[in-house]
Amino acid sequence: MKHKNKIIAVANQKGGVGKTTTTVNLAVGLVQLGKKVLLIDLDPQGNATMACGADSRHLSLSSCEVLMDECEAAEAIIQGGQVDLMGANTNLTAAELQMMEYEEPQTVLKEQLKGVIEQYDYVLIDCPPSLSILTINALAAANSVLIPMQCEYYALEGLTSLLDTIERVRQTVNPALEIEGLLRTMFDGRNNLANDVAEQISEHFGSKVFTTVVPRNVKVAEAPSFGQSAIEYDHLSRGAVAYKGLASEVLRRNHG
């Protein structure tokens, strides 16, 4: 389904699969292709916030205050970088606890975003590595889910619970939620197991698997410590080139 203002949740409850890296680099890649992008950090670790060059420890307003209804979404957005950012920090854990007392805790973010969504071509949400109420909020607000995954032994196993959660969200609060695609990350083609799992993923999910494969790449790992995406840090590195390819693929899928 084509959307004028598309919200994509980047989710996988398994940690260490390149979720934040994917969110940040896809956001920058889309900006470089002429799109206006908002990145929402919904992970209390605040890694996407830091990778966008903001200090998560010193945010005056963040996704925490938005979810606790202490400010409007527009007030918590930091502009001025390539990507507009709604940052996060450890305060989000408190928001998570408070939200459990709401009548409809799953749809808080969806309601809050109504005031800003029209200003953006894409909104990307970096979810925490768990299937918590924060992730459910992202899935309830999103049009689709992008799932980064490493090609390793337990990859498909961990995917089952995420797909179950997506199905539950469809049945309860967001019937139109789609899978944007599965992205194979940190790929090492010299590893037989990685190749086998990559093949399994393709057989299992067919056209839902992105053609782009993100290789294991030192520049991608270094970039966040400089408060940058891999694309900004070294645009010719293999990782950056892959993420630029992913941005083009996402645009093609959404705009033909």
Domain unit count:
1
As a whole number of angstroms, the C-alpha radius of gyration is 17 Å
Structural class: alpha/beta
CATH architecture: 3-Layer(aba) Sandwich
Order of helices and strands: EHEHHEEHHEHEHEHEHHH
Query: Can you tell me the residue ranges where pLDDT is under 50 for at least 5 consecutive residues?
Result: none
Helix content: 40-55%
Beta-strand content estimate: 15-25%
What's the level 1 CATH class?
A: Alpha Beta
How many strands?
A: 8
The separation of the N and C termini measures 11 Å
Enter the CATH topology name. Rossmann fold
Widest sheet, order of strands: 3-4-2-5-1-6-7-8
CATH superfamily: P-loop containing nucleotide triphosphate hydrolases
Number of helices: 11
Shape: globular
User: What is the typical, i.e. mean, pLDDT?
Assistant: 91
Tell me about the biggest sheet?
8 strands, mixed
Brief descriptors of the model:
alpha/beta, 8 strands, Rossmann fold, 256 residues
What does this structure look like?
α1 (19-32) packs across α11 (238-255). The chain has one domain: Rossmann fold (3-Layer(aba) Sandwich). The protein is globular. With 256 residues, it is an alpha/beta fold. It has helices at 19-32, 47-51, 63-67, 92-99, 108-113, 133-141, 155-172, 192-205, 218-222, 230-233, 238-255; strands at 6-10, 37-41, 77-78, 84-86, 122-126, 144-150, 178-187, 209-215. An eight-stranded mixed β-sheet has the order 3-4-2-5-1-6-7-8, sandwiched between helices.
Topology at a glance:
Layout: E1 6-10, H1 19-32, E2 37-41, H2 47-51, H3 63-67, E3 77-78, E4 84-86, H4 92-99, H5 108-113, E5 122-126, H6 133-141, E6 144-150, H7 155-172, E7 178-187, H8 192-205, E8 209-215, H9 218-222, H10 230-233, H11 238-255
Parallel strand pairs: 1-5, 1-6, 2-4, 2-5, 6-7, 7-8
Antiparallel strand pairs: 3-4
